[in-house]
Amino acid sequence: MFILLILSGQQGYIAYKDYKKAVDKLTGARIRAGESTTAEKSFSLFASEAQQRNEGAQVQEPLSAEVDGILLSDEAWLSLAMIKIAGQQQSYREGDTLAGYDDAWIETITQDSVVVRYHGVAQTLALKRPDYFKGMEPPPPVEELDANRRHAALMLSDYFVLKPLFREGKLQGYIINPRNASGYFKQSGFEPGDIVVKVDASDMTRELPAKLMATNWLKMKVADVVVQRHGQLKNIHLNVLND
């Protein structure tokens, strides 16, 4: 009987050791599986973050557009920018969307540039230099030029500023103001509040011909202007070469 008890106890001890080995293996497999899942999750999160950084670092292509002219107003919503895209010129105000682009709109119009917000990124389009400056170095200061050379470089836009005047959404003409403190504005026959309704053959109360003339104004030296003053029309001849 004693020998049977010893044999039974030894057999039970062997069975217990086999059971414990099986439990340890199963627990280790679960732990390793958990570590693998965590690593996979961490790698997945890291890859996603890196991908987001790469996507955010993408640089937008520059806009294919040229600023041909700018009419600046004291009131920002009245300012106009003449912009050429794919050979077609069109005028824009602040807030307008550029033709041919899904997400490009005019943010700011300044004296010599236009800021466009393109896919959330600001791009500055500089005013194109006039034809008479192409291929030339910037001219020396005005005080160093003799009278003849100074006159040769001057345009009507150096003396007068045109600003569109709208009433109830309809173009009434362009208010003309002096650009500098010289007396040329008064000498030419203008008075504060004059509204330009015609320049040469262009009707300045019609948007399309007015926009074209406003662009040409930047490089004109001579013009016949009709202004509206206190309900009456007055003809004024301008020639910057005779000032």
Q: Characterize the largest beta sheet: strand count, sense, and whether it forms a barrel.
A: 6 strands, antiparallel
pLDDT < 50 stretches: 38-50, 52-59
From the alpha carbons, calculate the radius of gyration and give it in angstroms.
38 Å
Secondary-structure element string: HEEEEEEHEEHEEHEE
Proportion in β-strands: 25-35%
Helical segment tally? 4
Structural class: alpha+beta
How many beta-strand runs?
Answer: 12
Q: Overall mean pLDDT score?
A: 76
Cα(first) to Cα(last) distance is 139 Å
Portion in helices: 25-40%
Q: What best-fitting shape do the alpha-carbon axes yield? A: globular
Keywords: Cell inner membrane, Cell membrane, Membrane, Protein transport, Transmembrane, Transmembrane helix, Transport
Subcellular location: Cell inner membrane
Family: Belongs to the GSP C family.
Domain Type II secretion system protein GspC N-terminal: 42-127
Topology of helices and strands:
Elements: H1 2-56, E1 66-71, E2 80-85, E3 88-92, E4 104-109, E5 113-118, E6 121-126, H2 147-153, E7 160-167, E8 170-178, H3 184-187, E9 195-199, E10 202-203, H4 207-216, E11 222-229, E12 232-239
Antiparallel strand pairs: 1-2, 2-3, 4-5, 5-6, 7-8, 8-9, 9-10, 9-11, 11-12
